[in-house]
Design brief:
This protein is of the alpha/beta class and 280 residues long. The chain folds into 3 domains: 1-47, no CATH class; 52-104, no CATH class; 109-278, Rossmann fold (3-Layer(aba) Sandwich), CATH 3.40.50. The chain is 38% helix and 11% strand. The protein is built from 10 helices and 8 strands. The chain has helices at 11-26, 62-72, 76-82, 134-140, 149-164, 184-190, 210-214, 217-233, 246-257, 270-278; strands spanning 50-53, 56-59, 95-96, 102-103, 129-133, 168-172, 237-240, 263-266. The strands form 3 sheets. It has a 4-stranded parallel β-sheet with strand order 7-6-5-8, with helices on both faces. A two-stranded antiparallel sheet has the order 1-2. A two-stranded antiparallel sheet has the order 3-4. A hairpin with a 5-residue loop joins strand 3 (95-96) and strand 4.
Length: 280
């Protein structure tokens, strides 16, 4: 629970005060500049989640506090005044304090419930052009046991030729910087159960399960690079986005639609559906 020591909502003012003190003491001599710990800005995260009430320590739940404020407020202006102060170390509606402050995972799959009945598959009889989500493909093909990485790549090629008659364009996510990007939070969440970094080549046999291996972004990136080479050698068109591939998948489908009567996007990510609906 915060008290008058919390001043992060006045960080600019506190910074100006700190600079004024520094200039008053040091003048123009930069070597003598010193910042003291007592002048730093304090957030609610630096405080304990309890206060003393009648000589007893009482734990305060920020969520409960906010709910009571919402009920007790007499006007929106009063609530606006309340919210000028920090109520929690991070927005609890967006971040999960029980999982180390990671961003909450959205339940996008609920969108599927809006669709009823069986899909119309008659368009598949028109020899369509396929655009396959590489992330979907990586997990769709089950790795055969005791096979090398090279043989595993061959199983992906066999699957594509069998399901899509070599007419598919496979689009993969990019991993140019595994620490930053639109999927950073998801990768951090997966890192809790991921395998260690593995150095491998096409002659080696995997020593960890498929899902655990692919949960490591570095392993996944290297495997995608190997698979891209194998697919290209087999005359299967491929693309790789700089980060998340969803937008590139839809753009590729739109481009192919200018030359082909029917284009089918293959994937399980609901984001693909949302983007395609948004581009109509």
């Amino acid at each position: 629970m915060g008290d008058e020591k919390i001043n992060c909502h006045l960080s600019r003012e506190e910074g100006v005060k700190c600079i004024d003190k520094m200039l008053a003491i040091a003048g123009n001599n930069f070597e003598s500049v010193k910042f003291k710990r007592r002048d730093r800005v304090l957030s609610l995260a630096t405080m304990k989640s309890s206060i003393i009430v009648h000589d007893q320590s009482v734990v305060v739940n920020p969520t409960t506090l906010f709910q009571r404020m919402s009920i007790a407020k007499e006007s929106d202006e009063e609530l606006e005044e309340f919210l000028t102060y920090e109520l929690s170390p991070f927005p609890l509606a967006l971040f999960d304090e029980k999982k180390g402050g990671l961003m909450r995972k959205g339940t996008k799959s609920t969108l599927y419930k809006a669709f009823r009945g069986e899909p119309d598959t008659s368009i598949l009889d028109k020899h369509p052009k396929y655009v396959v989500d590489g992330g979907f493909l990586l997990h769709k093909v089950v790795w055969p046991e005791k096979k090398t990485f090279g043989q595993i790549c061959d199983s992906y090629i066999e699957y594509l030729k069998k399901k899509y008659t070599s007419t598919a364009v496979v689009v993969f996510d990019g991993y140019s910087d595994a620490q930053r990007g639109t999927k950073q939070m998801e990768r951090m969440r997966r890192s809790m159960t991921q395998s260690v970094d593995i150095q491998f080549n096409d002659k080696m046999v995997p020593t960890v399960p498929q899902e655990k291996f692919l949960s490591n972004p570095y392993n996944k990136s290297r495997f995608i690079s190997m698979l891209l080479q194998k697919l290209s050698a087999s005359q299967i068109d491929t693309k790789q986005a700089s980060e998340d591939a969803d937008t590139l998948i839809v753009q590729t489908a739109q481009s192919l639609a200018e030359e082909h009567e029917t284009v089918v996007v293959v994937g399980e990510d609901v984001d693909l559906l949302v983007i395609m609906i948004g581009t109509l």
